Amino acid sequence: MKKLLLLIPILLIQTACLRLDSNLYNLSDKITEYKWDNYTGEQDFKLDNSYNIADSMHTTFTLSSGVNKIYATYLGSISRIATDTVILYCHGNKWHMDFYWQRAKLLAHTNGKHTYGVLMLDYRGYGLSEGEPTEAGLYEDVDAAMQWLKSNGLTNNRLIVYGFSMGSAPSTELTANPRSMRPHKLLLEAPFASSAVMAADGAGLNMPASFVTNLKIDNADEIKKVQQDFCWIHGTNDNFLNIKTHGEVVYKNHGGTYKEAHRISSADHGEVPVAAGFGPYLKIVGDFIRR
């Protein structure tokens, strides 16, 4: 018993060293340029040439977010933002936009090629974007992207926000508590419930989240404020964000009148589009946006 009592403080110290905020922001793949289709690093999947985006329909640029220069890319015609529906894609915690480029291209084909625009950005500290990643920074950077869309003529009723994994945090926050724009609809793929649940899942110990993280993200609580239509997609075999402790809780707590759930059989984290099939996946997204 004496040895066990001595072991508990050691476990707490070791767990506290594995801070969730450090682990959430995965910045290990440093780059000096974006390579898009020429990127040869790890990716969840690679699309065939039928999903290619013409150079004339792909623009990379920078946004100002606080004092930071944030890199973003737009798939579609910027001149048509004033009339098009636009999907603002908030990517996960891994690396940078090159890793998620295939996902952005896939979404650009939701309603036929170039019918919907897709905007993706690298949060501060990711890819070539300046600054250090923080929770507040996530929200500020995504809101800066909304400001850019608004300045190019986008209206609230044509803004669709799609959050994957860590991207579910700014997506949910800015839908529940609008700043520059009020998103029309919200899609979340493999969302996490809260930093507290992530800490509990990761540590395997029942202790306050403050032991392992400074993050206060609570999607499960914030989504109670979301009145907009909500689409939830999650793999049943997600080994990073468990479907029951994370996704199901977020789905259950949605505060609006319309929501739909798509549980993708046998899919692990990052495998949803492939496991569902690209066609059925795009049908889920497209049908939800058009309803």
Q: What does it look like?
A:
By secondary structure, the chain is α/β, with parallel strands linked by helices. The chain has one domain (2-27, 47-290): Alpha/Beta hydrolase fold, catalytic domain (Rossmann fold), CATH 3.40.50. The chain is 34% helix and 18% strand. The protein contains 10 helices and 8 strands. It has helices at residues 2-17, 20-24, 97-107, 135-151, 168-176, 195-203, 219-222, 243-253, 272-276, 278-290, and strands at residues 58-65, 68-75, 85-90, 116-121, 159-164, 185-189, 229-235, 259-264. Strands 1-2-4-3-5-6-7-8 form an 8-stranded mixed β-sheet, sandwiched between helices. Helix 4 packs across helix 5 (168-176). The longest helix has 17 residues, at 135-151. It is globular.
Topology:
Layout: H1 2-17, H2 20-24, E1 58-65, E2 68-75, E3 85-90, H3 97-107, E4 116-121, H4 135-151, E5 159-164, H5 168-176, E6 185-189, H6 195-203, H7 219-222, E7 229-235, H8 243-253, E8 259-264, H9 272-276, H10 278-290
Parallel strand pairs: 3-4, 3-5, 5-6, 6-7, 7-8
Antiparallel strand pairs: 1-2, 2-4
Helix pairs in contact: 4-5
